[in-house]
Write a structure and sequence with these properties.
heterodimer; A: about 170 residues; mainly alpha; Helicase, Ruva Protein, domain 3; 6 helices; B: alpha+beta; 4 domains; six-stranded antiparallel β-sheet; four-stranded antiparallel β-sheet; about 60% helix
């Protein structure tokens, strides 16, 4: 019976919504029991405000969000567990109401994506690093290159006396 | 008359863009210097005509010319002048004009500052830039003409969404666009390099300042948007993982990766193909972000344009731009020579790890944002992917990233030594433990992750200090020359330290405010006092007030701590008349250790008022952290090495080549 009353309330609220989408209502009545209130708040953070734009009911001004908050509080006060409250809401609004999508066959790809991607990327990089030989050092200079290097170094040494100070670090 | 000039200017800009997209490209392929030389003036021409169109539209807004449909549906004669002007981009058509203007501005800047670039390369870059402009100009002219007239003209306009009538949000889009569009330059450089089949340290040096500029503006724009949400929406939240927020966050993450991989290209001539790919992906994400916002495919706070026909146009445009560039990449990337090699433990290795983690993060945000759409399209099932998903997958990534961030800069290029770095780090570990302990002392118990967050932030701060001490030879050289040595370091290094420090500060802010925020929901009668945190919030009264285009009720709170007065707060609840809408104006008083935050709500009918009172520890650190990152970017940008258009552009490339040749 109580559910019907809630439902009727929701319908009325939804009708009102079309008139004031952004009405601000800071008129919540927190539960007197602090532990219960904390439990209720934790649930609210995970429930989508159905008429808003990607906000949880914990931080939405929409009247429907307030109504859902009241439902959550009432159920927690009546002794329901968080899972039962969520199940209740999912039964009415579908998985869409949960901001944290449940793990099932539809969301498997979503939940597996982050760990598998990270793992795959790490393995890829490590495999590449192992394939590329790096510790053999650079190829030795050819005779011509060595000569040119000696010449440049000599030139540089001749130039840098007195004029090169203060330039260090500009290309570090 | 003026709006017609604007319309005509857009068409002329399109003509210029067609010329700029074809002639210089042909010239570059044939080596025809006359055609190549056309690129810069054509870029300047595009910018001139789009600016003219933008100015015309602004004129129509300033003079409240309601015969222009766009003005009539988005402005109002009683609106304050600031919001008449910012209202120009507070709507779909106008924001697109701003987008294109920013795009052509960057083209013009490349033309002006790029005179030191090889002229064929510059011509190709500007041609690509013009191709993007063609897409957007066609979109404007075909589907979203901002200069459409109304006959007969209405006497009054509809007004601008009051939520958008706010300085924070007024300047949020331009900053964001500078970021989004700035990445187009990196994209054009990348495509030009692919066409030429050549990329090296010089390319990285050319592209870096543009990526930096884009990254700075993206960061600033995102921060401004989140700050707006914090004080305007009235719930104390600052990030909702809203699809539109994600749309700007993805390019930022990607640009952060690009910024770092470009360093490897510049210093070591390695990671070249990857960097090109990143440049393409960054701008693709920008385009995707624009698409997500404009097409109305997502319902979210920002979706002021809901029109599927436009969505189809952008979808085709996206397909051509992203698909085309990736196809070009697949075809040409193999022609780029592989570059310098490095060991896994090295600065390059650390930067590869940075890129890996940032790319994975970007991919996760993309997946989470698009998954509901994909699932809906494929199976018709509706799910929501909200903050819990993103937080769960982001926190482990951030932990890895931040730990590596401490060590990375201490490693040498090419072949680093973990042992040497490890020797430097005991003080960092000590400070990390102290930081976590300090948080415990100040705020008491909390979830384990909160203390891990503090430890990591302090770890990073300490690692930066160790690095500074190392590079300034603190303790190994006379103290008297310390400042000289510190000043002698390149600004880009100071920029790096500032940006990394910003990251640590950001982590502190996020962790503390998410964990230890205190909140009270109360009904108050004047004269009552409530305790939140260590503060006593005294409720004095509620008064009616009137603004230029709204009326409001204003609460009066006096906050004190241990009998000493701290601040007076005046939260408002405003009712705007056109369009009719109520908004909350939270009253916020920032203290160093946290913000006092008050929202006033409805009366209970028997003399009481509902109110929400918060104490949010360290929340300012979030924006301070981003500000540090932005400053770091600006500092790095001001580095002499990167200054394009230096006095003797002809003389510069030679020493660069000489310096980098041995590394190959």
């Amino acid at each position: 019976m109580r559910h019907y009353i809630y439902f009727a309330g929701l319908v009325i609220v939804a009708l009102l919504l079309s008139f004031s989408a952004h009405a601000v209502a800071v008129d919540d009545n927190p539960l007197p029991d602090q532990a219960q209130e904390a439990k209720a708040r934790a649930i609210m953070g995970d429930i989508r405000c159905l008429v808003c734009q990607n906000q949880s009911i914990e931080d939405s001004n929409a009247p429907l969000a307030k109504d859902l908050r009241d439902i959550v509080r009432a159920q927690i006060a009546a002794g329901s567990s968080p899972d039962e409250v969520k199940a209740y809401l999912v039964e009415r609004y579908g998985d869409w109401v949960l901001l944290k999508p449940p793990l099932n066959i539809r969301t498997l790809a979503l939940w597996l994506f982050p760990p598998l991607l990270l793992l795959g990327a790490l393995l890829f990089i490590l495999a590449r690093a192992r394939r590329t030989p790096v510790n053999q050092g650079p190829t030795p200079l050819s005779d011509a290159e060595q000569k040119r290097l000696d010449m440049l170094l000599a030139q540089n040494a001749a130039n840098s006396h007195g004029t090169h100070s203060g330039k260090e670090g500009t290309d570090s | 008359m003026i709006p017609e000039i604007g319309h005509f200017a857009l068409i002329l800009a399109l003509c210029f863009a067609f010329l700029a997209a074809s002639l210089p490209l042909i010239g570059a392929a044939r080596g025809d210097t006359r055609l190549i030389g056309l690129a810069p003036p054509l870029a300047l021409g595009q910018f001139f005509f789009v600016s003219l169109a933008f100015a015309s539209l602004t004129y129509a807004y300033v003079t409240s010319d309601f015969s222009v449909a766009n003005v009539a549906s988005n402005s109002h004669s009683l609106k304050p002048m600031l919001y008449k002007i910012t209202g120009v981009w507070g709507n779909h058509e106008g924001s697109l004009v701003l987008w294109v203007m920013t795009l052509t501005l960057f083209g013009a800047l490349v033309a002006l500052f790029g005179r030191s670039l090889p002229s064929a390369f510059l011509a190709r870059t500007l041609s690509i830039q013009a191709m993007i402009a063609i897409g957007f100009l066609l979109f404007l002219l075909l589907t979203s003409n901002p200069f459409e007239r109304l006959v007969p003209a209405p006497f009054e306009g509809n007004g601008l969404n009051p939520l958008l009538q706010d300085p924070g949000l007024a300047f949020h889009p331009p900053l964001l666009y500078l970021g989004y569009v700035g990445l187009s330059v990196a994209f054009s450089f990348a495509i030009a390099a692919l066409i030429e089949g050549r990329i090296g340290p010089r390319w990285a040096r050319w592209v870096r300042p543009w990526v930096l500029v884009a990254w700075i503006f993206l960061g600033a724009g995102i921060a401004l948007g989140s700050w707006w949400a914090y004080y305007e929406l009235g719930w104390g939240g600052w990030w909702f993982w809203d699809p539109v927020e994600n749309a700007s966050f993805m390019p930022w993450l990607c640009a952060t990766a690009l910024l770092h991989s470009a360093i490897v290209v510049e210093k070591r001539d390695a990671l070249k193909r990857w960097t090109i790919l990143l440049a393409i992906l960054c701008f693709s994400l920008s385009l995707l972000g624009t698409f997500l916002v404009r097409s109305g495919i997502l319902t979210s706070v920002h979706a002021f344009a809901v029109d599927a026909e436009r969505g189809v146009f952008i979808l085709i445009f996206l397909f051509i731009a992203i698909g085309g560039s990736l196809a070009l990449y697949a075809w040409r990337a193999s022609s780029l020579e592989p570059g310098g090699m490095f060991s896994t433990v090295s600065r390059e290795g650390a930067l590869v790890l940075n890129n890996l983690l940032l790319s994975v993060a970007t991919a996760i945000v993309l997946m989470g944002t698009l998954y509901p759409l994909l699932l809906d399209a494929l199976t018709g099932a509706k799910v929501s992917v909200g903050p819990p998903f993103f937080e769960l997958s982001f926190i482990p990534l951030s932990v890895l990233l931040l730990i590596a961030l401490g060590v990375g800069p201490l490693l040498a290029w090419k072949r680093g030594n973990l042992g040497r770095a490890a020797k430097l780090l005991p003080p960092a570990v000590l400070l990390a433990i102290l930081g976590a302990g300090g948080a415990w002392l100040i705020w008491g118990a909390g979830p384990v992750m909160a203390f891990i967050g503090f430890a990591i932030a302090f770890w990073l701060i300490a690692a930066i200090l160790v690095d500074i001490a190392q590079k300034t030879k603190l303790g190994r050289a006379p103290l008297s020359t310390l400042f000289q040595r510190a000043g002698g370091l390149p600004r880009s290094i100071w920029g790096m330290w500032a940006a990394h420090l910003g990251m640590a500060v950001l982590v502190l802010g996020v962790t503390a405010s998410e964990t230890w925020t205190e909140e009270k929901l109360v009904i108050l009668t004047p004269g009552e006092t409530v305790e939140v945190g260590d503060f006593q919030f005294g409720f004095k009264a509620v008064d009616p007030v009137a603004g230029p285009n709204y009326t409001a009720i204003r609460g009066q709170f006096s906050v004190s701590r241990n009998g000493r007065h701290v601040a007076d707060l005046w939260p408002e609840q405003r009712t705007y008349s056109s369009p009719h809408m109520e908004t909350t104006e939270a009253a916020i008083y920032p203290l160093f250790m946290g913000d006092l935050y008050v929202v006033v709500g409805d009366p209970d009918g028997i003399g009481g008022w509902s109110a929400r009172l918060y104490y949010k520890p360290l929340i300012s650190f979030i924006w301070a952290g981003v500000l540090l990152m932005v400053l770091g970017g600006a500092l790095s940008l001001s580095d002499r090495r990167l200054r394009v258009g230096a006095p003797h552009p002809k003389a510069r490339p030679v020493p660069n080549v000489a310096v980098h040749q041995p590394a190959e």
